[in-house]
Amino acid sequence: RKEHEKKKKKPLSAKYLHHQYGALLNxxxxxxxxxxxxxxxxxxxxxxxxxxxxVDAMTPEQAKVFFSLADxxxxxxxxxxxxxxxxxxxxxxxxxxxxxxxxxxxxVLHVERGVAYTHKTGVVMSTPKTSSSIxxxxxxxxxxGVVEAYREQYKREHSSTIIKDAYLFHRS
Length: 172
Known about the structure:
Blueprint: H1 2-8, H2 14-33, H3 60-70, H4 75-87, H5 91-95, E1 102-103, E2 108-111, E3 114-118, E4 122-126, E5 135-138, H6 141-157
Antiparallel strand pairs: 1-2, 2-5, 3-4
């Protein structure tokens, strides 16, 4: 670590160190389980601390300006902006939403899939990496109104589509 800091003139990130610690822990656990070593030497190594990052949220004044500007956007973009800012869903989760995942009556969004892109695989739709990422997210009343308005427009523009099976956001 110290040698890297001398060469690069910057310290290794806490995230990088935590990742490397986890990789070594797994490697040595495997070796211990398969009797390649007597004891996992990582048991005596303290895990690096992860620093909590400060959340950079909008001020009430900034939120007021943001939503007033969002109200002048096209219905799909307005719905995206409201969902992203009021629910905390990730971009990939947002793009993976189908209309059946939106329960405006109960004011809940069911998150159970996401979209990811890599150079190697391209665009891939899949379930989230962890079971805790499959969740129900509450919707604010204002967001419910925006989603319902967008749904009505969507129905008018895509009258031949079986709406519950369709994705909220797509480009045709």
